[in-house]
Amino acid sequence: QVQLVESGGGLVQPGGSLRLSCAASGDIFYINTMGWYRQAPGKERELVAALTMGGTTNYADSAKGRFTISRDSAKNTAYLQMNSLKPEDTALYYCKCNTRASLTKGAMDYWGKGTLVTVSS
User: Fold this and answer.
1) With DSSP H G I counted as helix, E B as strand and the rest as coil, what are the percentages for the chain, rounded to 5?
2) Is the predicted pLDDT of residue 53 greater than 90, yes or no?
């Protein structure tokens, strides 16, 4: 079993910044991908940013140029630096980790419980 714990959410004014953290722990042999998703009230969950352990990144168009995903491999932790925040960024942000528990087992997805980001003046 793998556990993901997000932190760093909160209330921020438009134009402000926040840094989210996602720490993965448990039965981890290898992490393939870590990423951030968000779900705003009345909207579907969407990808914000993803990062493979090989260094490949993928961003939503709305996040490009403002958000940056990074990782600390030694700590199995992913970060999302969010700058120039807009009211439309308000959402519950979830961390997802795709990992495998051993060399012979397939990969699985794990989700955190989410951290709330509210952008408002």
Assistant:
1) 5, 55, 40
2) no
DSSP assigned state of 107: P
Closest CA to 60 of 47, 44, 43, 72: 47
Q: Which two tokens stand for residue 56?
A: 């490949």
Q: Is 97 helix (H, G, I), strand (E, B) or coil?
A: strand
Full DSSP string of the chain: -EEEEEE--EEE-TT--EEEEEEEEES-SEEEEEEEEEE-TTS--EEEEEEETTS-EEE-TTTTTTEEEEEEGGGTEEEEEE-S--GGG-EEEEEEEEEESSTTSPPEEEE---EEEEE--
Q: Which residues pair with 50 in a beta bridge?
A: 35, 58
How much is the pLDDT for 78? Answer: 94
